[in-house]
Amino acid sequence: MKRDTLKSLTWDEENSQLVLIDQRKLPHKLEYFICDNYEDVAFAIEDMVVRGAPAIGISAAYGMALAEIGGEDIEKAYNRLKNTRPTAVNLFWALDRCMRAYRDRRSILSEAKLIHREDMEACRRIGEIGESIIEDGDTVLTHCNAGALATSAYGTALGVIRFAHYRGKSINVVVDETRPRLQGAKLTSFELKYEGIPVKIITDSTAGFLMSRGMIDKVIVGADRILKDYTVFNKIGTYSLAVLAKYHNIPFYVAAPTSTFDFKSSIEDVTIEERDEREVLYIEGKRIAPEGVGAYNYGFDITPFELITGIITERGIIYNENDNRGNSF
Ligand code: MRU
User: Fold this and answer.
1) Given phi > 0 = left and psi -120 to 50 = alpha, else beta, which region is 84?
2) How far apart are the CA of 222 and the centre of ligand 1, in A?
3) Which residues bind substrate per the record (predicted)?
């Protein structure tokens, strides 16, 4: 049973450095990006060296620890890290925990390590609990990368898939490219190949056709923020998949740790990240659209709970009682 998943981030105790897998270089090169100070961490989050809600939260916590170690202004570090990306709540949750530790005169580094360990445990539990929704022979569609690369280990949506695989279930994965950053084509396929789980890539526009042909049994995605009414913010394209899954009567699950829940905000309070339009207008550095044409580049969308069968957390599965697609209740 293979349990050594990729480590998107590691704390190097000896050198007091945060070591990140440089996700911009995958799948062609496995290179590391070393953070010596909080500014390095802030850059890594902004430029998506590290990405995925739990992974950016943990990285930001180590960024605060680096500020503490370097004797820097903690409030300044907090504000810099807080302004890196707006949508995933794990970032603010982790930074607030570190700020509380600092104000209580506790070690920020110890708090960061605790956040890191807790996420590993949460992802492991999500995998163990969630694998029960997978049946032997299922073909599962996933979106973006909610894997080990997006967390401390295992992943959330991919944690569920990994544990089904570890428990001997035969499972096929279909992942969409996830334009424009291609987390599906580049990262999820890389992770699944590493694990030996069969995976096929589709363009983002192929999902409906596969569903209409009966080629998808379940959809499982991650989340960047979940509100108290279980509205889910996740990578752009999630909402379209949820609508398609509902139409085709295919169970649609979200997997996320409780650190992704935000019971304080309402929909209007949440900023949907808008990234540089060049991410859409260019592919691998080459412009694909005519000069003078602009683009929308929203990073995330909003899926209401009515389109969701269940939310898998480390504490159990929150089923939507009004949804009759699931087969586990
Ligand atoms: O822009 P990204 O790559 O950081 O977006 C990541 C996602 O949307 C993931 O699906 C989400 O963070 C869940 S990760 C376990």
Assistant:
1) alpha
2) 7
3) 51-53, 85, 183, 234-235
